[in-house]
Design goal:
single chain; alpha/beta; Nucleotidyltransferase, domain 5; 7 helices; 41% helix; 14% strand
Length: 209
């Protein structure tokens, strides 16, 4: 099990970006669920106030599930603005996953109020063949380990998607989504071969069947 890790000063990193870029309203955006065979891809965008207090805020993959749940509530309480958006499985099949990731992130950014002057985007891609991040932005490789805003977005996206997949587990209990969250595990492939795909499976991801 992952242990909670006290990160480097993510808040200071964001503060330096504000100064260097001469912006007041800075947001972070991240997505969750690019790799699964089933379910939506989620994205979250967050504008944190200067002076936010979010103990053990870090990349969602480096935080235990229990602390992710606690941070999920704290982020929503303290954020100047936050939003969660998603792209449905059928959209993923139509667009491909890269375009879907960009679309989910831009949808989340568009829901923020006030609108950010700049967005820190996790990763090294800001566009696909037809969808792109259109808000002024800066790409940050491994951004959830550098930026408080991106780390907060990673928590909201991860927890939101996990909760969605837990609901889908109730709707489609034969696939055990509560165990693997739709990722391509051995169990998931075994259940897919036994039952075939359900309405939330990404057909374009099932070429190994």
């Amino acid at each position: 099990m992952n242990k909670d890790v006290e990160p480097v000063d993510l808040y200071q990193w964001d503060a330096q970006v504000r100064v260097q870029s001469q912006v007041e309203v800075l947001a972070g955006v991240d997505e969750a669920g690019a790799g699964p065979l089933a379910g939506r891809v989620y994205a979250a965008a967050v504008i944190l106030p200067q002076g936010a207090e979010l103990p053990y805020l870090n990349d969602s993959k480096k935080v235990t599930p229990r602390r992710r749940d606690l941070l999920f509530d704290l982020i929503r309480e303290q954020a100047v603005s936050w939003s969660v958006a998603w792209v449905e499985p059928e959209e993923i099949d139509q667009l491909d996953i890269l375009n879907s990731r960009m679309l989910a992130m831009q949808r989340a950014i568009d829901q923020l109020n006030p609108a950010p002057q700049m967005v820190l985007v996790d990763g090294n891609r800001d566009h696909g063949s037809c969808c792109a991040i259109t808000t002024p932005h800066q790409l940050v490789v491994k951004g959830d380990a550098h930026s408080a805003s991106i780390a907060a977005a990673s928590i909201l996206a991860k927890v939101s998607r996990d909760r969605y997949m837990e609901e889908m587990a109730k709707a489609y209990p034969q696939y055990a989504f509560e165990k693997h969250k739709g990722y391509p595990t051995k169990l998931h492939y075994e259940l897919l071969r036994q039952y075939g795909p359900c309405p939330i499976h990404r057909r374009s991801f099932l070429k190994k069947l």
